[in-house]
Amino acid sequence: MHNDDQWKDRYSRQTRFTPIGQAGQDRLREAAILIVGCGALGASLAQHMVRAGVGTVRLADRDYVEPSNLQRQMLFDEEDALAALPKAVAASNKLRRINSDVNIEPHVVDVTARNAAKLTKGIMLVLDGTDNVQTRLALSDCCFQSGIPLLYGGIAGSQGMSATLIPGETACLRCLIGGAEEGEAGETCETIGVISPIVDWIAALQAAEALKWLTGSRDALRRTWLSADLWPFQLFESNLPKPSVSCSYCSRSAVSMLTIRKMAKRKQRWDSTRGSDTVINGSAAEGSREESRGAERSREADLPSEVAHPTDDSKAAAHLGESIERDSPIRTAMLCGRDTVQVSMGRTIDLSMAEQYMAAHGLLVTSNPYLVRVQVQEGERLVLFPDGRILVQGTQDTSLAAALCDRYVQGIEEAAITANRLNRAGGQERS
Amino acid sequence: MSSKWKDFRLYVITGVNYHPGRSLMTVMEQTLQGGADIIQLRAKDMTKREVLAQAYALRKLTRHYDVPLIINDHIDIALAVDADGVHLGQDDLPLAEARRILGADRIIGISTHSIEQALRAERDGADYIGVGPVFPTGTKPGRQAVTTSYVQEAAQRIRIPFVAIGGITTSNVNEVLAAGAARICAVSAIVGSDDPAHECRSFLQAIHASDQSKPGQVDLKQIRVNGRAEQTSARHVTELVQQLGLEGKRIVVELNGQILARDAWGEAEIENGATLEMVHFVGGG
């Protein structure tokens, strides 16, 4: 934390901007946001939020840096790609150098309906930087259940879209684009490519709305669905619908008074920092001034930092493209357009054991503290994460990928048992 | 060229083998007198020089009657005689190539035998499609008839002009019209008859009679979808999405400046003059 005089002007250009001012800046410092996906949009969003001085920026991403990311993902460089660092980790490294005052929490994790609630704990705003429909729907569901606004952003080619979805005020993403029953994934960067200007354009739109929301300028929010194509320049904007009467996520009855009160409470907490009397949904914000952000921070402390493990929430909603193998906790998900299947083993993986085992079998292994990559004899490449996820690159066959992972992980675990036994035996001999 | 040609109702294709002893020009002039409003030169077993000669002659004739001339298959001949367009089969030069050679202004028609082919032709920028053969025909021996159920499908899902073709005669044309065709094409039934002009008038009578019995057609609403003028019979957004073949697609629909939640599609009525935007969801990040 900088206290020097030299840093006192850090946010001066932002506070000189009247709608934000010093009061807005204080609110930003008290704010906690979650950015899901730390690729092109996510990195750009994180950069905006960290430079602006948002107090806590939680980053969640399931992927690692590859050379094909560098053309547009602004926080990464060649070293990150060579080291195959997880994007959340590589981004945090950069972001901490940009602003060491910000509490940055990287989570190398696949955000699903199972762990979304945990990841959004203590969060006031979720920024969407994901690259797929499934994660977005899981996020929308979770945000509407917890009364957290979601800033949707999506890009592909030279096109992009963005919308601010607010529980109690607008329809949820599911009502706008359809749920899991719609077969189509939508265009993605993997299917039609993407140019870097649209990334920053859409991220800038999202970031502007985030600043408005976090500094309390609700009246200034852009309440539209905006879509644009930068190549044949086209811009299209239209009003968002109200919550759907029959939706189990966004209908006014679903967004219960409880969540609306929760929103009011959070809002009141920021307002208390500048003594404003904002009214939400017609009811005066409740809650006491005494309940400080510090208290809430300490409640968040149970959230693991650096690497989060997906928890087995009993309310695991169906996750599009994810199938549950019978008699086994292994779950698989196709990563659209990437020739990759993500396999979730349902148990943690000992990375050093994995590395030893693969190397002992003569396989080409590269590793860093966050993941192990190995080229297996079957032709695919496995990327193993300690939370029990494995990316199987070079296939779209989920059952083949699951079988492959099962075989190797069992091998790793058996090797670990043998090693333990030998260690113990060795110990006894020495004693 | 202007889009006036799209109003055609009776499309006649040449077939010299059906009128031995009578000249091509005599027969085709009779069809024009009878009201044929678009003519295609199809000459499969002739040298290019012979086709070219016929094309020049037909060009002169059709200009006189102010009717578009379409050349089957031969793009070079179409260009040489300044025909209005070409008609291509599924195995001919691909549409994109033909378009590049012919430019945006010439008409390109495509023969289709299934709704998939029809949708592809529409997507690829065909100006009209042929839908058939509706009934078994001697002009295309060995090809399975697609029946009027394909005509019905095309009527529901295809927005560019489509013309029903294949084995259609004055005795079965009503079935085809009832299935939703608004444009009819005939070869042998017209050029093979003793009185082609009379035959044409009979076809047109059936077509116009069918218009009267289809109140829905008169009620087609003029709307704009993504800036393009369209006509539709759809009552609400769900029907329109189906008609446009966008069912199951991840799209966001805006009606008159307001995005619609999906469960509101069925109640969102489409009125004359409605403006819609249908935007495909963009999923990258």
What do you see in this structure?
The complex is a heterodimer of chains A (431) and B (285). Chain A is an alpha+beta fold and 431 residues long. Helices cover 37% and strands 19% of the residues of chain A. In chain A, strands 3-2-1-4-5-6-7-8 form an eight-stranded mixed sheet, with helices on both faces. In chain A, strands 11-12-13-17-16-15-14 form a seven-stranded antiparallel sheet, covered by helices on one side. A two-stranded antiparallel ribbon of chain A has the order 9-10. In chain A, strand 1, helix 3 and strand 2 form a beta-alpha-beta unit. About 13% of the residues of chain A have low confidence. By secondary structure, chain B is α/β, with parallel strands linked by helices. In chain B, the strands form two sheets. Chain B has an eight-stranded parallel sheet with strand order 7-6-5-4-3-2-1-8. In chain B, strand 3, helix 3 and strand 4 form a beta-alpha-beta unit. Chain B is globular. Chains A and B meet through helix 3, strand 5, strand 6, helix 8 and strand 8 of A and strand 11, strand 12 and strand 13 of B.
Helix-strand layout with pairing:
The complex is a heterodimer of chains A (431) and B (285).
Chain A: H1 12-15, H2 21-30, E1 32-36, H3 40-52, E2 56-61, H4 78-83, H5 87-98, E3 103-108, H6 116-119, E4 125-128, H7 133-146, E5 150-156, E6 159-165, H8 173-177, H9 189-192, H10 196-215, E7 224-229, E8 234-239, H11 257-272, E9 279-280, E10 283-284, H12 293-300, E11 322-324, E12 331-335, E13 340-344, H13 351-360, E14 364-368, E15 371-375, E16 381-384, E17 389-393, H14 398-430
Parallel strand pairs in A: 1-2, 1-4, 2-3, 4-5
Antiparallel strand pairs in A: 5-6, 6-7, 7-8, 9-10, 11-12, 12-13, 13-17, 14-15, 15-16, 16-17
Helix pairs in contact in A: 3-10, 13-14
Chain B: E1 10-13, H1 24-34, E2 38-41, H2 48-65, E3 69-72, H3 75-80, E4 85-88, H4 95-102, E5 107-112, H5 115-124, E6 128-131, H6 147-157, E7 162-164, H7 173-178, E8 184-186, H8 188-191, H9 196-213, H10 215-218, E9 221-225, E10 228-232, H11 237-243, E11 251-255, E12 258-259, E13 275-280
Parallel strand pairs in B: 1-2, 1-8, 2-3, 3-4, 4-5, 5-6, 6-7, 9-13
Antiparallel strand pairs in B: 9-10, 11-12, 11-13
